[in-house]
Design goal:
By secondary structure, the chain is an all-alpha fold. Helices cover 59% and strands 0% of the residues. It is built from five helices and no strands.
């Protein structure tokens, strides 16, 4: 049986990939659609979600090479490829959590924040949910069906 934290990150990966795959089937101009109250266009929101996810991983592992460079210029297929690798990295990170003690480095006037392992895990999971919801809001506001990827759908598809 998978422990709850692994299950949550498997869901995070599954839901993001499911939504990416759905949006990859849209006409290219629809990827630049947006609606008030969201983070931006479908394309830019995916770039942000996947870029931030890579940043959380880089903080967890002290490996900045994980971060997605030039993410706003990448296609959905390229973003998807990065996210698949990130999902594999999350599995590795989750397997060694007790050995990790990351910190967020000081930036500008913000001091460094030590011992943020649980914060980064929580933020990665929440951030993914938040921005997947934004993308679904854009889809719905622009007349598209919204794919289902809640916990019930995940469980049904994977168990």
């Amino acid at each position: 049986m998978t422990d709850p934290l692994h299950e949550m990150f498997q869901y995070h990966s599954w839901a993001t990939l499911k939504l990416l795959d759905y949006c990859a089937g849209l006409p290219p101009e629809q990827l630049d659609a947006t609606t008030p109250g969201t983070a931006g266009t479908i394309r830019s929101t995916f770039a942000h979600l996947i870029g931030a996810d890579s940043w959380y991983l880089s903080l967890m592992t002290y490996d900045t090479s994980i971060e997605v460079a030039n993410r706003t210029s990448l296609s959905l297929a390229e973003l998807r490829a990065h996210f698949v690798k990130q999902s594999e990295m999350w599995e590795a990170v989750l397997g060694q959590l007790n050995e990790l003690d990351p910190m967020i480095p000081a930036r500008g006037s913000d001091p460094a924040i030590p011992h943020v392992r649980n914060l980064l895990l929580l933020q990665a999971f929440h951030h993914g949910n938040d921005h997947r919801t934004h993308i679904c809001s854009v889809l719905s506001a622009n007349g598209h069906d919204v794919p289902e990827f809640d916990g019930w759908m995940y469980w049904s598809a994977t168990h």
